[in-house]
Amino acid sequence: MDFGIRGRWAVVCAASQGLGKGCAIALAREGVNLVINSRRQETLDAVARELRALDPAIEVRSVAGDIGDPAIREAVLSACPQVDILINNNGGPPPGDFRDWNRDDWMAALDANMLAPIALIQACVDGMAERSFGRIVNITSSAVKAPIDVLGLSNGARSGLTGFVAGTSRQSSLASRNVTINNLLPGAFDTQRLRGGIDKAATNSGRTHDEVAQSRLAAIPAGRFGTPGEFGEVCAFLCSQQAAYLIGQNVLLDGGAYPGTF
After folding, report:
1. Per-residue pLDDT tens digits of the chain, which is 262 residues long
2. d(Cα 28, Cα 143) in Å, to the nearest integer?
3. Domain spans of the chain?
């Protein structure tokens, strides 16, 4: 299926590995020009070369730095001739006990996982509406639907972004102008972050990596972890011409782990 977005320009945040890289790869295969961002320039440059190899006709630009920094956001946006597609993504805050968190911990989580994506949305949506095309996908977490007790910082910040999107995406000045905003909620995907979490849990529990991994797989009806590639393909669909009627939704991609009806 041709998604009808060849030649568009996309900004993809946290694109050097994992789910962000999966999204960048899927968009590159659709012929989308890219501005990619992550913290490390060397890693980002390697990904940029990989993306260009997928389609020599596309242009790929890289801007390194923390997307939570307003100056970096400005540099990312300045590198993009026009933002047709925005993929908001950032690493989540660390797990812990809410009794140990102070105001600085909360503000860091909010800056990274709520306020930074809102700032990018704010900077892009009016231009999208003027051009009668815009796709915004926020990579959040399955914990938005099924909160995890030790991820309180992430639960709070990402739920705040979810509430913001629920209202903003339905503004007629955007929705009627072919600008869509949706959230993509990953469950357990085979990424460096997941593997690191399994290693930590194994160390803390005295079990092996494989034992912890198998216990997590037992809770996933699909019987496996997701891949960044298939996550990226779903993201690319949300950015397609065909997804123009999909607005303000939380698309859960978790191999069936969430047991609820709604």
Report:
1. 899 999 999 999 999 999 999 999 999 999 999 999 999 999 999 999 999 999 999 999 999 999 999 999 999 999 999 999 999 999 888 888 999 999 999 999 999 999 999 999 999 999 999 999 999 999 999 999 999 888 999 999 999 999 999 999 999 999 999 999 999 999 999 998 888 889 888 888 889 999 889 999 999 999 999 999 999 999 999 999 999 999 999 999 999 999 998 8
2. 29
3. 9-187+228-251, 189-225
Backbone torsions φ then ψ of 127, nearest 5 degrees:
-65, -40
Region class of 223: left (phi > 0), else alpha (psi between -120 and 50), else beta: left
**For the domain with range 9-187+228-251, which CATH number is right: 3.40.1620.10, 3.40.50.2300, 3.40.50.720, 3.40.50.1820?**
3.40.50.720
Beta pairing partners, 36: 12, 62
